[in-house]
Each structure stands twice: as C-alpha cells, then as structure tokens.
C-alpha cells in the first residue's frame, strides 16, 4: 500500500499571516462614583476588584495605554507540518498492522485448509467404515434369509411327508 503522506485537504493561502491583535479599551471608573456600587449593563454590581486586577495585567506602555499585550504570532505552517508528520507516523504504524494482519490471515487460511482437508479425510474414512458395516450386516441378513428359507423348505418337506402318510 502507499505509505506516502497525504496532502492536507485544508485550503492553503499563498501567504499565511497571523491575525492582527485587536486593541481593547478599558473604561476608567469615575472618581465621583462609589467603586463597589458600579453596575454593569444588566443592572448587576460589577466586580471592581477583578477589573482592577485586569488593569494591572494590561500593558501600560506609554504609546498604547490600557490595551492588551500583543499576542505573538503562531506558526500555522509548522503546526500543519507537525500534524502531517504525525499522520504519516500513524499511517506507517497502521500499514505495519495491516501487513501483520495479512500475514496472520495467510496462516489462518493454511490452518483452515489443513483442518478442512483433515476433516474431509476423516469423513471419507467414516463413510467407508459405515458402508462396510452396512454391507456386512446385509450379508449377515442374506445368510439368515437363506437359512430361514432352508428351514421353511425343510418344514414344507416334513409336512408333505406327514400328509402322505
């Protein structure tokens, strides 16, 4: 079987680029409001402690204050190459298993045909034995028939002699 790695079915663009990061704006709390009583758009009290923690996690560079740190680009081509390499390894393993299975099937077929031939030979011998047994019984029955016919002839002869006397 063919063990070459298959081409990916995913469309591949001529130039693969990482998506551009999107800036996220953070609203600052107004100094005249109570930070613990701020509500979100659904009328629920917002977790201001979490918002303060997120503010410290954000980038505070002077050129982009309050934006998310830039996420480094991901090498999608490398991912696809690793994926195809892994698939090729799995395909090779599968081919090995199939070859082993085919060899085992050959052994099974040899065993099955040998067992079948042996069973056929035994069945033929059983048939011969039964045929011989039936033929012997038929011969015995024929001898008994001839014996009883002779006995009947003897009785008939004796009856004729008695009738004549």
Automatic annotation (TrEMBL):
<feature type="compositionally biased region" description="Polar residues">
    <location>
        <begin position="26"/>
        <end position="42"/>
    </location>
</feature>
<protein>
    <submittedName>
        <fullName>Uncharacterized protein</fullName>
    </submittedName>
</protein>
<feature type="compositionally biased region" description="Polar residues">
    <location>
        <begin position="1"/>
        <end position="16"/>
    </location>
</feature>
<feature type="region of interest" description="Disordered">
    <location>
        <begin position="1"/>
        <end position="42"/>
    </location>
</feature>
